[in-house]
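Summary of Year 1 activities. Much of the first year was spent building the evaluation harness for sequence design. The harness presents a backbone, in tokenized form, and records the residue chosen at every position. We chose the following record to illustrate the format because it has been used consistently in internal testing since the harness was completed.
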């Protein structure tokens, strides 16, 4: 009797624990290499943001540096607490600097190891979600035994988790010292709790995620929509559904989530004062970056930048409108919140809904850099089992997704490193980037199979 070809290749796939070990070794090697590289090269492997994080942690610990005492109304009087916002360009929650305090007393690369560990946790969460929620709902052949089916799920979950753990974008960003992995851990924990039906835990984790970085607040819409849809027949906007949108369960979820966000924010404000509020939140509402990001809005900001010695109020009304945050915020929030409202009717579809919400949020954001792509590529391993696309279309999506970025980066190199006046050409390539990534999103959405059709 000939062995089943499917079983043969599945037996050759390493187990998930082996994958975790390989992923951990890879990250440790890259972190060790980063220390050697930074000591011997002018061009550093470590991201500049990591130096900012480390300096912020140092300022918290050493209050004698630049007189950086915490300025909050309830800052401890019995012992001095430093102000991380003394470090210019530190625009994150102070809790990140607190987490990286061991950079000072343990090892300068502690933060990198922490981010790499979060990468591994994220891979484990992806695997867990696939095994407990995504793959079991995928149609199985009726003549396949339960034992083989479980083994097949484990193999497929391992391979899909590998697309995250062994993704060069993921392990490069974390080992260079970017903190996105921590946020991804919070988001995946929020998603896992939502899929498990643990409403209170989901609300708390959503509030924590939004405190860490504000954008996960958009997931609240799809969570409330999924809660309102429970026990309601049909998919229309009937009265029973609309009533549940503002019902007790939905309101409790919103209040608990918002309460978590407010408590964390109020605590940080009480210790660190207005610098926390401005740098962590308010700054981002009016951020204007006219050079190094994929967003086509950079050109509008560049063209409407006040001349030397001038102020924004000296600009004409239409120029002020072009550079206004609402120019990008209105279409961005309309799409990211609207997709959550219309697509989030079933909790089982939340991975897909969050992917679409995050993709549109990043695509139409006023500022967009490569690390933002992690926010939505995080969900791709959870979508693959429910997306019915040919390999040709997958290849085309990958080529367009990467090709439009490469096209933009080639022109951005001329601007950033050669100093060439290529602003218009870079803007055209930004438009190509938006069009290409929007096409990729449309293809993925068209191939997705909702849970009620499984």
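For this record, the design step produced the sequence shown next.
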């Amino acid at each position: 009797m000939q062995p089943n070809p499917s079983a043969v290749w599945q037996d050759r796939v390493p187990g998930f624990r082996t994958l975790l070990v390989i992923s951990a070794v890879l990250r440790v090697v890259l972190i060790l290499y980063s220390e050697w590289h930074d000591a011997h090269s002018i061009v550093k492997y470590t991201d500049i943001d990591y130096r900012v994080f480390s300096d912020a942690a140092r300022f918290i610990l050493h209050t004698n540096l630049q007189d950086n005492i915490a300025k909050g109304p309830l800052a401890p009087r019995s012992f001095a607490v430093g102000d991380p916002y003394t470090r210019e360009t530190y625009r994150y929650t102070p809790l990140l600097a607190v987490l990286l305090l061991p950079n000072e007393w343990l090892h300068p690369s502690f933060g990198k190891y922490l981010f790499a560990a979060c990468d591994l946790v994220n891979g484990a969460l992806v695997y867990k979600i696939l095994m407990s929620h995504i793959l079991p709902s995928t149609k199985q052949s009726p003549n396949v035994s339960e034992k083989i089916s479980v083994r097949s799920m484990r193999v497929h979950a391992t391979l899909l988790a590998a697309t995250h753990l062994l993704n060069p974008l993921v392990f490069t960003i974390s080992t260079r010292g970017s903190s996105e992995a921590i946020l991804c851990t919070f988001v995946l924990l929020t998603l896992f709790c939502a899929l498990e039906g643990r409403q209170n835990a989901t609300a708390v984790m959503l509030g924590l995620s939004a405190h860490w970085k504000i954008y996960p607040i958009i997931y609240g819409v799809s969570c409330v929509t999924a809660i309102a849809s429970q026990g309601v027949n049909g998919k229309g906007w009937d009265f029973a559904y609309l009533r549940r949108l503002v019902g007790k369960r939905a309101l409790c979820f919103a209040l608990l989530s918002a309460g978590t966000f407010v408590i964390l924010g109020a605590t940080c404000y009480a210790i660190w004062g207005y610098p926390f509020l401005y740098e962590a939140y308010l700054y981002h509402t009016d951020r204007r970056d006219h050079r190094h990001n994929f967003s086509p809005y950079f050109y509008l900001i560049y063209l409407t930048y006040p001349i030397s010695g001038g102020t924004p109020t000296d600009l004409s009304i239409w120029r002020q409108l072009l550079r206004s945050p609402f120019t990008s915020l209105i279409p961005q929030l309309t799409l990211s919140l609207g997709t959550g409202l219309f697509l989030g009717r079933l909790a089982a579809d939340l991975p897909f809904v969050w992917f679409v919400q995050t993709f549109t949020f990043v695509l139409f954001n006023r500022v967009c850099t490569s690390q933002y792509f992690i926010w939505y590529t995080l969900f791709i391993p959870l979508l693959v089992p429910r997306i019915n696309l040919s390999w040709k279309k997958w290849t085309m999506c990958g080529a367009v997704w990467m090709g439009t970025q490469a096209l933009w980066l080639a022109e951005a190199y001329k601007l950033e490193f050669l100093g060439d006046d290529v602003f218009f050409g870079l803007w055209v390539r930004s438009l190509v980037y938006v069009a290409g990534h929007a096409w990729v999103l449309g293809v993925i959405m068209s191939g997705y199979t909702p849970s009620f059709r499984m």
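The mean pLDDT is 87. Quantitative recovery figures across the full test set are reported in Table 2.
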